[in-house]
C-alpha cells in the first residue's frame, strides 16, 4: 500500500545518502599530478553541484574558433543552472580539473596537442606534456576529484567492424570500472550502436535514456532504433539512479543518454550518407587507432558543410543544461 511504499522510499533515500558520503570520503583530493581550480575545490568542500567537462572535444572534436566558443558557452550554461563547471585537461603534465579562460583558449588554439585516453595518462605525465582528455581520462580525473556528474557530446563506442578490428573505445571499459554518470547524446552512427550497447551491458553499465521513452539516441538524431535498459524522466530521477550507483559501491558508471531536441536534429539522410563516405575513406586511407574518431568527425563536418557541427553544438548545449540540472538535484538530495 501507499504508506508502506513511502516508508520504503524514505528508508532507501537515507541509506543512499549515507552510502554516497562513505564513497566520497574514500576519494583523495590532493593527489600528486592533480591541480584542482579554486572555484572547483571550494564548491566540492561546500557540497555544491559541480559538472565535469571533457577537452578532447576542444582539441580534436571541433575546429577553431567553434571549439573555444562552444567550450565557453557550455561553462556559462552550467553556471546559469547553478552548478560549477570543471573542464578537465592535461597541461604540462598536470591533470587540471577546472581551467582558466587562458588555458581554455590555449587548448583551443594549439595544434598538435595530444588526445589523452586512460592508456596515455602515464606517458603524458612522465613527459610533462599537454592534451585534451577523452571521456575515459576525464572520468578518471573527475572521479578522483570527487565529481560524480560529467557532461559531454557523445562517447566513443564499438566501431563498425569492431568485432574484427577490436576497435572498441576505452570509454566503454572506463564506464565499466569508474563510478561516474556520463551525460551524452548517445553514440554517433559512425559507430556500431547495437554492439556498443551490448558491450556496455557486459561491462555492467546502467544505461538510461533521458525523457519519456527508452529510445537510445544516435547523437545527431533522437532515435537510433535501439533502446536503453531504462529511462529517467527528470533530473531528480536521474540523480537517484546515480546516487544508487555510488552508494552501492558498484564501481561501474551510469550512462544518461539525452536525445538531441527535435528542432535541432540533423537531416538524418544527409548525415548517414556523409558517415558512409567518411568511414570508407578512413579505411581506404588506413587511418587507425586513436586517429579514427577525429578523422571521421572532421570528414562528416566537411561533407555536410558545417550542418553536423551546428547540431553538434546544439546538443552539447542541451546536454550541459540537463547534466547541470541532474548535478543540482543530486547535491540537493545529499543535503
Ligand atoms: N564522439 C564525438 N565527439 C568527440 C569524441 C567522440 O562525437 O569529440 C571524442 C571523445 O573525447 C571520446 C573520444 O572520448 O572521442 C573517443 O575516441 P576513441 O573512439 O578513439 O576512443
Ligand atoms: Mn579506437
UniProtKB/TrEMBL annotation:
<protein>
    <submittedName>
        <fullName>Pseudouridine-metabolizing bifunctional protein C1861.05</fullName>
    </submittedName>
</protein>
